[in-house]
Amino acid sequence: MKPKLPIHCPSCESSLSVSQLTCETCQTQVSGNFSLPLLLKLSEEEQNFILQFFLSSGSLKEMAIQMGNSYPTVRNKLDDMIEKIKKTQNKLVNE
Questions:
Q1: pLDDT at residue 43 above 80?
Q2: What number of other Cβ atoms are within 10 A of residue 76's Cβ?
Q3: CATH tag for 37-94 (out of 1.10.10, 3.40.50, 2.60.40, 1.10.3470)
């Protein structure tokens, strides 16, 4: 199992950025200061929810059945995630 990409500093909890990328085939390295994509800044649970939403063709009814939750519970979770993404996106735009 590959280790999970950390998104917060283990020391101070600030957001991390990517400073180096390496090609696994030829070992070429690209260095710089790159921000993480918005979706990678979500928790693993939130990323899994989005993946499940995508795989169920956006059917919250189907997701509720698969998750064993009620439709309103899944709808509220989606609404909460939308609000979080909007706030994160606005913060990134203002930086």
A1: yes
A2: 12
A3: 1.10.10
| Contact call for residues 88 and 38 (beta carbons, < 8 A) | yes
pLDDT band at 1 (very low <50, low <70, confident <90, very high): low
Q: Which residues contact 41 (CB under 8 A, 6 or more apart)?
A: 7, 15, 88
43 vs 31, residue with greater confidence: 31
Query: Would you tell me how many other CB atoms lie within 10 Å of the CB of residue 88?
Result: 14
Q: Is 63 exposed, middle or buried, given 0-12, 13-18 or 19+ CB atoms closer than 10 A?
A: buried
What pTM, to 2 d.p., does this model score? 0.70
